[in-house]
Structure formats: C-alpha cells, structure tokens
Amino acid sequence: MVDSTVVLHNNYKVNKDKYKIHINQHLSRFTIGNCELPDGIILAPMAGVTDSPYRRITRRFGSGLLYSELISAEGMRRMGVKTFELARFHPDERPISIQLFGYNPQSFANAAAIIADKLEPDIIDINCGCPVKKMVRRDSGGYLMQFPELIGEIVEATRKASGLPVSVKLRSGYRVSEETASTAAIAAVDAGASLIAIHARYVTAPWSSNADWSVIKRVKEAVKQIPVIGNGDVQSWEDAERMKEQTGCDRVMIGRAARGKPWIFQSPNKNDEKQWEPSSHERINILIDHYRMMLEYIPEYRAVCRMRKHFGWYTKGLPGSSTLREKVMRMENPTEVIKILEWYRDERLKE
Question: What predicted TM-score, i.e. pTM, was given to this entire model?
Fold first, then answer.
C-alpha cells in the first residue's frame, strides 16, 4: 500500500489528497523559456518576508511561480556576499524568478550574466513597481514607471546578457492620474519580455485607495501575446477568480494577505468550492516547520530574530496568543522557542 502522507517535518504529517494542487482547467498554458507557468496563485515578492523558507512553505500549499526578494543589480554585479545570500533558492522552489532592481541597463546586464551562470534560475524579473521611498530615491523600483523607454532598454540588456526569459513587475504609474502601465508593458514586450505583472496602484499612493483593476485589463489588452499577472487587493481565491473574470489576466498574485497564511494558496475543494483553513493545532505545526526551516537556512540568532514577525502573523486571533508572543519575542534559544510552541499547541489550545 502506498503511504498516503507526506512528511513536512518529523512531527508534521498531512494528507496528500487534502494538499493536492487542483488544476484550473480554464487557465491557459504558457511556456516561458524551459518551464511552464504554474497554475497556482503567485506569491508576491516582499522584502524581509518572502525568503527561501517561506517560499518553500507556500509551494507546499500550491503557490505558482515564485520570486526572490529584491536583489540589487549593482550588488550582484559586484558579487556581494549578502546579495548572493538573498538570491539563494532551493530546488523545490522551481520555477523561480530572481528579481532585480536598479536603473542602469549595463548593471542589469552584468548582474543577469552572473545570475544565469552561477544560480541558473528559470526567469529574471525586473522590478519597476516598488514604492518604498529609499528605493525610489535611488531611481529604482517604481521610479522607473516614469520612463517606459528605459524599462525597455533594461529588459533588452538583461535578456541578451543572460539568455533567460525576462519578466517585469509594474505599477499603474508613478503619479495618480498619470497612468503609464500599458505604455511600459508594451515597451517591455517589444524589448523581449515574456511575462508582465501589474500591481494596480500608483507608486506615490501605494496604499491610499483600493486597487483599480481596470488598469490590469488595459495592460492585458495591450499585450495579449504574453501572460499578464494581476496584483492588488486580492485576499482570497474568490478575489482571485473575480480579478481574472474582470480583467482577463492569466494569473493572480497575492502579497500582504499571505503573511502568516501560507495555506491561502491551497486551492478550494472541488466538491464544495470552500478554501481550506487549518485548525489551530495545524497552524502551529506549520509555524514550527517554518521555524525549523529558517534555522537550517541562516545562522541561529538571525533565524530567531527574523521569525519573530512571522509569530505575530501566524498566531493572530488564536486564544492567548498575545501572552505567547510576549514570551517568544524575548527568547533567543530556538529549542526553548519550539518547546513553548509545542506546549501552547498541546496544552493551551485544548482548553
């Protein structure tokens, strides 16, 4: 008899059927380079959150194409140690895209050549949408939305230097009322881009209003020949389906709604169309597994510190979670952290 469980860690088993990734038959198939664009909802890259352990956790629940955290093209060109660490990925993460930021086409070309040679990802992504001020002040990220021609030059330089497919992550535009998304998408595609992702908000007003999905629709209509990923105000599979219906986008990306909820990528059960939610016990098991993966990924002290924000997201709304977080935030011994999590799971959650 075939074992019906898959071990995510020594004490964490789940039923394979429950976690089977259901294929959405209505989705179009796209081959990008040597890989097929996966069906699942895509995890948006988020600095300090979507590192390799978290990406791997989401992949177990069915996330689609994965992206690295933001990588400096200039830092990669200089072959910085910290830059390479950020770019590391596990074979289980494929297909994987390494996301670069910067503004100089030659820096992108040099960085892309190094990435293709030493890391061999499936795709290289150009970030033209990050709204963080320190990024924009460096003429990078969302700053580029003002210069569609420059975006095209960067795409072409990256593609030629790496020999890999190139994707681009855009925003609606730089300033409200100055929509440049479609123009930038066309420039990128004309330069050889194979995939476009669009967050339907402006760089200078990143969270001040609801995402305008009509921008995604206009981008898709402008570049029908390649897949377009929609992003913005997607909190669930229901939202993802609505976005696809309203915009015609080919895939959907989730960012902030995925923090502490890697199971959000688990597709709904075909029978009742309800999205799976873990029990409180299962949620803590997933957190423990994530914690152990982080300890294997980076040095112990850094792992303990980095996981503290994840504790807050994972345990939000659970009974007595504020007291648990208060204790964990002061702890530096990972063995003790795991022990208190196991106690909380086995004793506090059964009350």
Answer: 0.88
Measured in degrees and rounded to the nearest 5, phi and psi for residue 255 equal -115, -95
- Rg (C-alpha) for the chain, rounded Å, is 20
Beta partners for 5? Answer: 15
Query: CA-CA distance, 148 to 284, in Å (whole number)?
Result: 45
Closest by CA to 57, choosing from 288, 267, 240, is 288
- Looking at 3.20.20.70, 3.40.50.300, 3.30.1960.10, 3.40.50.620, the CATH number of the domain 31-265 comes to 3.20.20.70
Look-up of token digits 């190139």:
166
Domain boundaries, the chain: 31-265, 280-350
245-276 pLDDT per residue, tens: 999 999 999 999 999 999 999 888 666 567 78
CB-CB contact of 181 with 171 (8 Å): yes
CA torsion 33-189-141-232 (nearest 10°) is -90
Distance in angstroms (rounded) separating the CA atoms of residues 62 and 36: 15
Q: What is the DSSP letter of 268?
A: P
**Amino acid in position 102:** G
11-26 average pLDDT score: 37
Q: Which residues contact 62 (CB under 8 A, 6 or more apart)?
A: 19, 21, 22, 40, 41, 265, 266, 267
Q: Which overall architecture, per CATH, does domain 280-350 show? A: Orthogonal Bundle (1.10)
Place of tokens 């990306």: 253
Which of 35, 128, 130, 305 is an active site residue?
130
Look up 130 and say whether it is catalytic.
yes
CA dist 329 and 343 (Å) reads 16
